[in-house]
Amino acid sequence: MTSVRPVAVVGGATTKFGVRQATWSELVQEAGARLFAAIPNLAASDVDSLFVGAAEPERFAFQSHVAPLAAELLGLEPHRIVQRTELACASGQSAIRSAYAAIAAGLADVAVALGVEKMNLPSMAEANTSMACVMDRPWDGAHGATAPPFFAMVAQRHMLEYGTTEDQLAAVSEKNHRFANSNPEAQFHEKSFSREKLLRLPLIAPPLRLGDCSSMTDGAAAVLLVSGELARKYTDTPAWIRGSGQHASWHNLANAGSLTDWTGMRIAAREALGSAGITASQLDFAELHDCFTISEIVEYEALGLCKPGEGGAYVTDGRSDLGGDVVVNPRGGLLGCGHPLGATGVAQAVEVYRQFAHTVPPARQVPDPEWALVHNLSGSANVHSMMVYARGG
Amino acid sequence: MPALAVTKRRAKKAPRAVSETAAPKIEVPTERTAEAPKKPTTLTLLDFFPQEESQQTRVSRFFTELRAGRFMTTRCPKDKKLLWPPRVTCPQCHAEELDWVELPQRGHLYAFSALLAGAPLGMEADLPITVGLVDLEGVPLRLFGRLVGAPWNEIRVGQRVRVEPFDLADGRVFYRFHVEG
Ligand SMILES: [Zn+2]
For the domain that residue A31 is a member of, what is the CATH number? Predict the structure, then answer.
């Protein structure tokens, strides 16, 4: 990654995440207005490219061709690249990755990456149907393969192979909901969840309970990415993209690798950390894709923060909390913030920018962070997308 | 036209209270019939199940064999790789001529769970939706599928299961796994 131009995230914003009384396009408008409010020096005419991360607008909002719609709503007239990116739960990071690639290659200079999803519909059964088509729909989805039973099987195997406990799962949820209490944009901002309370919530897909699962959420987020020489025009605290890695190998569940050792994430991490020239232990914080509590535990292990099977103890020992080794999900995670598919990856990048700028509340501010990693899995953890950020200096 | 029915009924109801009544039901008879497939009654946008007719797919043999009680897939004649689901090319050597082979119909549960809430359209009546990963006996295939024959809280990892073909209401055929006692 030595021949590419430097690229920085120079600001961003998110809408309130939650069950929103707002349409898909209204969420886009909110995120756009907040992006311009967050970056006073940004003029619409500066923006040459727009990438819109949206997983299923055709199903959730019955709307295709969404990138020009978003351009219209933000008052943009992109003249270099305008497109939508889709990678299910990682659609938002896909928008950022594409903007990064375009700027790094010299094909764009100033790009907006916007992520959005409207998931709460009058019929939630219809929304659940759309979630099931993320899997290999005719061969896996037809059996009733939605995300909860798949990640429940990951939890079952992790418990069987390593003795991981429900209490350790609940510890992930407790931590991330506590962080969400300091994030007014989080879906569960004002809800408190003790481990005892979490263990009494109803089962959704055994052994996973309601508090082990991220929710169906409406929300949007946007960031501005620029080439290195333009960064200081927009901010004093750029977040520099220093590493990138991504891995995909299978889709139908019959062709999956190990449920408990996510080798694809190991490969993506090797690429991302290797291209940044750091090791996992040098990270100050990480936004990991906690779509389910078990995901975060397996991710500690696949990222190399601990050995296989030690992920449960990693969280209960406080090693992923403030004051621990690597703070994981200070934003509140998908568990605390909710998971509007296309918006999540962009909101994670907003958190990285804000952490580096020291503009988050003290309850979740990582002390003096220099390195951060953002990870999204998608589907049945068959794809892992990762980016490494360094604080501007 | 179930999707239109959904829209009409929804308009009279308060938001977020529709899911139980709005579903286009996919009836799943317990006894198999010998009926030929009719036109699918569910619009493609809401239809989970594979298109099985030869006008629609090049692997319609999977379904005709399944209807006759044989569980088949394709295998690459060059590298002998078993392919799932049935393919028309080999992803390993990209051969375009594949063999059909019969698979064992017994296996063991590698993992399982059950969806207790939040069913997709047409599957609400199936809750809890019990699913699992099944290691087929004697072949390197671990297939995902619906589990029937025992409640989820009486199933254990390692338990024996067998392939069970069943008919969809529109005459198409599909498979699931029956948990053995
Ligand atoms: Zn081959």
Answer: 3.40.47.10
